[in-house]
């Protein structure tokens, strides 16, 4: 098959799109009793690179990539849509959106309509990207594409996104509380990224009720001494001062409005979960702690908290886990999905 320079450039642009376009999915919209919710409003991962094995096994146009060629997936003629009885939920949604943007109702869409469809499917693509993809899918040059032409490309993209989602979910399912830490300090950039994820947590009316206070060695020593003065033993003092990372988390008070204060507390719980998951994703363990020391005015004064305006919701210890994250206690859950998920008609 002869490839013209114009066609080669179009395929190159579409190949770039395959590697650059990302699917943004709002996933795991669950709220447990501890408000363990995560999503920092970032793409899960590239939905189109690297290509799936199914793509890799298909014929290529233009020769090996090393020679400057670009691969183009080729698909067997699809069965009539009516015969496709087992569409996945993602495919059914794509069909629903396709029908919605198909303003003429003739079963075909234009380049502009394709751009609208990509956005409605949470695929981040510029107008130029959409135009390149349209030319890529419109192999017969008819100036329109049907759903059957769009579906195979989108199916592979959705499958790649599922693989990324599995990695994302693995971080959530794999996180454990770490009790023992090495002394090596954690880079400040890691802390900043964790806080950035934390403040992306859901919060009613964008109230942003949280504050994060990073404690240095001097302040940690004072807190450890306070704990000792309150009855803690010498071992606790040594242990506390050896923990490399301390972050106090607060929640603002809403005087005379307990409902709002409770909602804000839920938001802070979400933020703490985001914080710890971000750390875990970078190989850093953490532990959300509480205790009588944190309830005292002396502690509040040491860490700079005005108890009239905010309350301490906990202290997060963090650092490199002694023995690695794999040494963390897995603590098997007592209940599974079917134990806690109820379905009503």
Automatic annotation (TrEMBL):
InterPro entries on file: EF-hand-dom_pair, EF_Hand_1_Ca_BS, EF_hand_dom, NAD(P)H_nitroreductase, Nitroreductase, Nitroreductase-like
Cross-referenced PROSITE patterns: EF_HAND_1, EF_HAND_2
GO molecular function, one term: calcium ion binding
Keywords: Calcium
Designated name of the protein: EF-hand domain-containing protein
Domain EF-hand: 89-124, 125-160
